[in-house]
Specification:
Elements lengths: L2 E2 L9 E4 L13 E5 L6 H12 L3 E7 L8 E2 L12 E2 L2 E6 L10 E6 L8 H14 L4 E9 L18 E5 H8 L10 H6 L4 H5 L3 E2 L2 H5 L4 H4 L3 H13 L7 E8 L5 H11 L1
Parallel strand pairs: 3-8, 3-9, 9-12, 10-11
Antiparallel strand pairs: 1-2, 2-4, 4-7, 5-6, 7-8, 10-12
Length: about 270
Protein backbone atom coordinates (compact mmCIF):
# COMPACT_ATOMS: atom_id res chain seq x y z
CA UNK A 1 0.00 0.00 0.00
CA UNK A 2 1.09 3.55 -0.50
CA UNK A 3 -0.13 6.99 0.46
CA UNK A 4 0.68 9.72 -2.05
CA UNK A 5 0.19 13.46 -1.82
CA UNK A 6 -0.67 13.83 -5.51
CA UNK A 7 -1.79 11.81 -8.48
CA UNK A 8 1.20 12.92 -10.54
CA UNK A 9 3.95 10.43 -9.75
CA UNK A 10 6.61 12.54 -11.48
CA UNK A 11 6.46 15.09 -8.66
CA UNK A 12 4.83 13.14 -5.83
CA UNK A 13 6.30 12.24 -2.46
CA UNK A 14 5.00 8.78 -1.64
CA UNK A 15 4.76 7.04 1.73
CA UNK A 16 5.10 3.26 1.86
CA UNK A 17 3.97 1.72 5.19
CA UNK A 18 6.09 -1.07 6.65
CA UNK A 19 4.28 -4.39 6.12
CA UNK A 20 2.98 -5.92 9.31
CA UNK A 21 3.49 -2.81 11.45
CA UNK A 22 0.35 -1.46 13.06
CA UNK A 23 0.21 2.30 12.59
CA UNK A 24 -2.43 4.83 11.74
CA UNK A 25 -2.50 5.72 8.04
CA UNK A 26 -3.14 9.30 9.13
CA UNK A 27 -0.51 11.67 10.52
CA UNK A 28 -3.05 14.37 11.28
CA UNK A 29 -2.14 16.40 14.37
CA UNK A 30 1.33 14.90 14.73
CA UNK A 31 4.64 16.76 14.84
CA UNK A 32 6.96 16.10 11.89
CA UNK A 33 10.69 16.10 12.60
CA UNK A 34 12.69 15.76 9.40
CA UNK A 35 16.44 15.56 8.85
CA UNK A 36 17.95 16.96 5.66
CA UNK A 37 21.29 16.14 4.07
CA UNK A 38 23.42 19.18 4.84
CA UNK A 39 26.85 20.28 6.07
CA UNK A 40 28.60 17.59 8.13
CA UNK A 41 25.43 15.46 8.14
CA UNK A 42 24.55 16.98 11.50
CA UNK A 43 20.79 16.79 10.92
CA UNK A 44 20.98 13.11 10.04
CA UNK A 45 23.17 12.32 13.05
CA UNK A 46 20.75 14.21 15.30
CA UNK A 47 17.81 12.28 13.88
CA UNK A 48 19.56 8.97 14.58
CA UNK A 49 20.10 10.11 18.17
CA UNK A 50 16.40 10.93 18.53
CA UNK A 51 15.36 7.58 17.05
CA UNK A 52 17.66 5.83 19.52
CA UNK A 53 16.85 7.95 22.58
CA UNK A 54 13.08 8.00 22.05
CA UNK A 55 12.97 4.33 21.01
CA UNK A 56 11.09 5.23 17.85
CA UNK A 57 9.74 2.43 15.70
CA UNK A 58 10.01 2.27 11.93
CA UNK A 59 6.58 2.58 10.29
CA UNK A 60 7.52 3.09 6.66
CA UNK A 61 9.61 4.92 4.09
CA UNK A 62 9.28 7.84 1.69
CA UNK A 63 10.16 7.90 -1.99
CA UNK A 64 10.47 10.65 -4.60
CA UNK A 65 11.91 10.59 -8.15
CA UNK A 66 14.58 13.13 -7.14
CA UNK A 67 15.79 11.12 -4.15
CA UNK A 68 18.81 9.04 -5.12
CA UNK A 69 18.53 5.26 -4.53
CA UNK A 70 20.07 4.08 -1.29
CA UNK A 71 19.82 0.80 0.61
CA UNK A 72 21.63 -0.66 3.59
CA UNK A 73 21.22 -2.47 6.87
CA UNK A 74 18.88 -0.92 9.43
CA UNK A 75 21.12 0.63 12.09
CA UNK A 76 18.51 -0.07 14.77
CA UNK A 77 17.38 -3.52 13.61
CA UNK A 78 19.77 -5.65 15.66
CA UNK A 79 18.71 -4.37 19.08
CA UNK A 80 15.06 -4.79 18.10
CA UNK A 81 15.57 -8.38 17.08
CA UNK A 82 15.35 -7.64 13.36
CA UNK A 83 18.95 -7.66 12.18
CA UNK A 84 17.90 -8.42 8.59
CA UNK A 85 15.83 -5.27 8.06
CA UNK A 86 16.79 -2.90 5.26
CA UNK A 87 17.00 0.89 5.39
CA UNK A 88 15.95 2.97 2.39
CA UNK A 89 16.63 6.51 1.16
CA UNK A 90 14.15 8.13 3.57
CA UNK A 91 12.98 6.22 6.63
CA UNK A 92 9.88 7.11 8.68
CA UNK A 93 9.76 6.45 12.43
CA UNK A 94 6.98 6.96 14.97
CA UNK A 95 7.21 8.03 18.61
CA UNK A 96 4.19 7.73 20.90
CA UNK A 97 0.56 7.62 19.99
CA UNK A 98 0.39 3.88 19.38
CA UNK A 99 -0.89 4.65 15.90
CA UNK A 100 -3.32 7.37 16.98
CA UNK A 101 -3.12 11.04 16.07
CA UNK A 102 -2.53 13.68 18.69
CA UNK A 103 -0.21 16.48 19.79
CA UNK A 104 2.17 14.06 21.56
CA UNK A 105 2.68 11.86 18.53
CA UNK A 106 5.93 12.56 16.67
CA UNK A 107 6.97 11.34 13.23
CA UNK A 108 10.70 11.30 12.50
CA UNK A 109 11.89 11.27 8.89
CA UNK A 110 15.52 10.28 8.36
CA UNK A 111 16.85 11.29 4.94
CA UNK A 112 19.82 9.03 4.21
CA UNK A 113 20.27 9.77 0.50
CA UNK A 114 21.20 12.89 -1.43
CA UNK A 115 18.81 14.66 -3.80
CA UNK A 116 19.62 14.59 -7.51
CA UNK A 117 21.56 17.65 -8.68
CA UNK A 118 19.29 20.47 -9.81
CA UNK A 119 16.24 19.01 -8.08
CA UNK A 120 16.45 20.57 -4.60
CA UNK A 121 13.54 22.96 -5.14
CA UNK A 122 11.28 20.30 -6.65
CA UNK A 123 12.12 17.89 -3.84
CA UNK A 124 11.53 20.55 -1.17
CA UNK A 125 8.15 21.42 -2.70
CA UNK A 126 7.17 17.74 -2.71
CA UNK A 127 8.09 17.34 0.96
CA UNK A 128 6.07 20.43 1.91
CA UNK A 129 3.08 19.25 -0.16
CA UNK A 130 3.19 15.79 1.48
CA UNK A 131 3.40 17.30 4.97
CA UNK A 132 0.49 19.60 4.21
CA UNK A 133 -1.64 16.80 2.75
CA UNK A 134 -0.82 14.67 5.80
CA UNK A 135 -2.07 17.48 8.11
CA UNK A 136 0.93 17.59 10.41
CA UNK A 137 0.52 20.03 13.29
CA UNK A 138 4.01 21.48 12.88
CA UNK A 139 7.35 20.69 11.28
CA UNK A 140 10.84 20.81 12.79
CA UNK A 141 13.77 20.56 10.35
CA UNK A 142 17.12 19.22 11.62
CA UNK A 143 20.05 20.60 9.64
CA UNK A 144 23.40 22.38 9.58
CA UNK A 145 25.37 24.95 7.62
CA UNK A 146 29.07 25.88 7.28
CA UNK A 147 30.48 27.93 10.14
CA UNK A 148 31.59 30.47 7.51
CA UNK A 149 27.90 31.28 6.96
CA UNK A 150 27.60 32.77 10.45
CA UNK A 151 26.22 36.27 10.53
CA UNK A 152 28.40 39.23 11.39
CA UNK A 153 27.93 42.53 13.10
CA UNK A 154 25.79 43.49 16.07
CA UNK A 155 24.03 40.53 17.66
CA UNK A 156 26.10 37.84 15.94
CA UNK A 157 27.12 34.97 18.19
CA UNK A 158 30.74 33.81 18.30
CA UNK A 159 31.06 30.48 16.51
CA UNK A 160 34.73 29.49 16.56
CA UNK A 161 35.62 26.97 19.26
CA UNK A 162 32.07 26.32 20.42
CA UNK A 163 28.96 24.37 19.50
CA UNK A 164 26.20 26.93 19.11
CA UNK A 165 22.79 25.80 17.89
CA UNK A 166 20.52 28.16 15.99
CA UNK A 167 16.86 28.10 15.08
CA UNK A 168 15.12 29.90 12.23
CA UNK A 169 11.48 30.11 11.17
CA UNK A 170 10.39 29.47 7.60
CA UNK A 171 9.00 33.00 7.50
CA UNK A 172 12.50 34.41 8.17
CA UNK A 173 13.94 32.56 5.19
CA UNK A 174 11.13 33.78 2.94
CA UNK A 175 11.65 37.37 4.09
CA UNK A 176 15.38 37.19 3.36
CA UNK A 177 14.91 35.67 -0.08
CA UNK A 178 12.24 38.23 -0.98
CA UNK A 179 14.50 41.05 0.13
CA UNK A 180 12.29 42.33 2.93
CA UNK A 181 13.71 45.58 4.35
CA UNK A 182 13.31 44.98 8.05
CA UNK A 183 15.39 48.01 8.99
CA UNK A 184 12.33 50.14 8.26
CA UNK A 185 10.34 48.45 11.01
CA UNK A 186 12.32 49.43 14.10
CA UNK A 187 15.40 48.49 16.08
CA UNK A 188 17.28 45.21 15.77
CA UNK A 189 15.66 43.63 18.79
CA UNK A 190 12.21 44.11 17.33
CA UNK A 191 13.30 42.80 13.94
CA UNK A 192 14.77 39.62 15.43
CA UNK A 193 11.68 39.14 17.60
CA UNK A 194 9.53 38.58 14.53
CA UNK A 195 11.56 35.50 13.67
CA UNK A 196 12.10 33.82 17.04
CA UNK A 197 10.40 30.84 18.67
CA UNK A 198 10.42 31.08 22.47
CA UNK A 199 10.48 27.28 22.87
CA UNK A 200 13.80 26.91 21.10
CA UNK A 201 15.23 30.03 22.69
CA UNK A 202 14.51 28.41 26.08
CA UNK A 203 16.24 25.22 24.91
CA UNK A 204 19.42 27.16 24.15
CA UNK A 205 18.99 27.42 20.38
CA UNK A 206 19.45 31.13 19.69
CA UNK A 207 17.76 32.80 16.74
CA UNK A 208 19.80 32.68 13.53
CA UNK A 209 21.34 36.02 12.59
CA UNK A 210 19.39 37.64 9.78
CA UNK A 211 22.64 38.47 7.97
CA UNK A 212 23.28 34.73 7.53
CA UNK A 213 20.28 34.61 5.20
CA UNK A 214 20.68 37.94 3.47
CA UNK A 215 24.36 37.47 2.58
CA UNK A 216 23.51 34.93 -0.13
CA UNK A 217 19.88 35.06 -1.20
CA UNK A 218 20.50 32.72 -4.12
CA UNK A 219 21.69 29.94 -1.82
CA UNK A 220 18.83 30.71 0.57
CA UNK A 221 16.34 29.89 -2.15
CA UNK A 222 17.84 26.76 -3.69
CA UNK A 223 20.02 24.86 -1.18
CA UNK A 224 19.02 22.81 1.86
CA UNK A 225 17.89 23.50 4.49
CA UNK A 226 16.81 26.91 3.18
CA UNK A 227 15.01 25.52 0.14
CA UNK A 228 12.91 23.26 2.36
CA UNK A 229 11.96 26.08 4.72
CA UNK A 230 11.01 28.31 1.81
CA UNK A 231 8.88 25.51 0.34
CA UNK A 232 6.97 25.09 3.60
CA UNK A 233 6.36 28.84 3.78
CA UNK A 234 5.15 29.03 0.17
CA UNK A 235 2.91 25.97 0.58
CA UNK A 236 1.15 27.50 3.60
CA UNK A 237 0.85 30.92 1.93
CA UNK A 238 -0.64 29.34 -1.18
CA UNK A 239 -3.33 27.64 0.90
CA UNK A 240 -4.19 30.83 2.75
CA UNK A 241 -3.00 29.48 6.09
CA UNK A 242 -0.85 32.53 6.92
CA UNK A 243 2.44 31.80 8.64
CA UNK A 244 3.45 28.18 8.39
CA UNK A 245 4.35 26.31 11.54
CA UNK A 246 7.82 25.27 10.41
CA UNK A 247 11.15 25.89 12.11
CA UNK A 248 14.69 24.61 11.56
CA UNK A 249 17.11 23.71 14.33
CA UNK A 250 20.64 23.79 12.97
CA UNK A 251 24.29 24.03 13.87
CA UNK A 252 26.77 26.26 12.09
CA UNK A 253 29.84 24.04 12.11
CA UNK A 254 32.92 22.69 10.37
CA UNK A 255 33.02 19.22 8.86
CA UNK A 256 34.86 16.55 10.84
CA UNK A 257 33.72 14.84 14.01
CA UNK A 258 30.29 16.43 14.31
CA UNK A 259 29.08 14.29 17.21
CA UNK A 260 28.90 17.23 19.62
CA UNK A 261 26.97 19.31 17.07
CA UNK A 262 24.47 16.50 16.54
CA UNK A 263 23.98 15.99 20.28
CA UNK A 264 23.29 19.72 20.73
CA UNK A 265 20.80 19.84 17.84
CA UNK A 266 18.99 16.73 19.08
CA UNK A 267 18.78 18.12 22.62
CA UNK A 268 17.33 21.41 21.39
CA UNK A 269 14.74 19.66 19.22
CA UNK A 270 13.71 16.98 21.72
Amino acid sequence: ARVASSADRSTTMEFYPTPGVASSSSFAGATLVIAVASHGNVGQLACDLLVQRLRARRVGSLDHPSLLPCVGGDAFGRERGDGGALAMSAEVYEVGGGGTSGPRRTILVQQRAEVRAGSQRAFASAVAAWASASAFHETVVLASAPSTAAGHGKGATAQIGATVVRHVLASAVAAAVDGAKEEEEGDEGRREGRFEDARFQAAGAVALERSTLTRDRRAASSLPPWSLLRAFHDDAAGKGNGKTSCVAVLALCSEGDNTADAVAVAAAAA
